[in-house]
Specification:
Helices cover 63% and strands 7% of the residues. It is mainly alpha-helical and 162 residues long. The chain has a three-stranded antiparallel sheet. Strand 2 and strand 3 form a beta hairpin. It is found in: Cytoplasm.
Length: 162
């Protein structure tokens, strides 16, 4: 692995050399393709992510969906309300703890799963990656995310350098 001290100072602050910018640019490009692929399903990308979680795990409390998607309830709640308004999910308040809301797929939402199979296939095709390259990229991104999460949560991570 290249150490930051091995890179000339003139290169350190170049935009094209920033990994985070490359990831952000790729994310924006992905979102453009997702927007097109999801249009026929009537879903936004964040709504699609919620549907993926529900198709995979079934009924879940909002809190757990938020944990899977790394979203807080303030972001997730309006998104879930819109999914409910479209008839894809149903929100049910817990009788034991009225602060807890469980999200369930409706029959329409469950049936949409088959239609959504074209989405990951379309993304793979648009990315011009082989299945093996996509798997490698996915693994690297998971590793980077884990490492960055650990660094952000390390003692003193918020302290100013100096």
């Amino acid at each position: 692995m290249t150490e930051p001290t091995d890179v000339p100072e003139t290169e350190l602050l170049r935009l094209d050399n920033q990994i985070c910018f490359s990831v952000q640019a790729a994310s924006r490009a992905f979102n453009g393709v997702y927007r097109t692929l999801l249009k026929d399903l009537g879903l936004t990308y964040p709504q699609y992510l919620v549907m993926l979680v529900l198709w995979e795990h079934g009924d879940l409390p909002v809190k757990q969906i938020g944990e899977y998607l790394r979203l807080d309830s303030g972001t997730l709640s309006p998104l879930l309300k819109r999914l409910e308004a479209t008839g894809y999910v149903r929100r049910t308040r817990s009788t034991e703890d009225e602060r807890s809301v469980t999200i369930r797929l409706t029959d329409t939402g469950a049936a949409m799963r088959g239609q959504a199979l074209c989405v990951p296939r379309g993304i793979l095709e648009a990315s011009d990656l082989s299945a093996e390259e996509a798997t490698t990229l996915h693994s690297l991104l998971l590793r980077v995310t884990g490492s960055l999460d650990a660094a952000a949560n390390a003692p003193g991570a918020g302290a100013a350098a100096g």
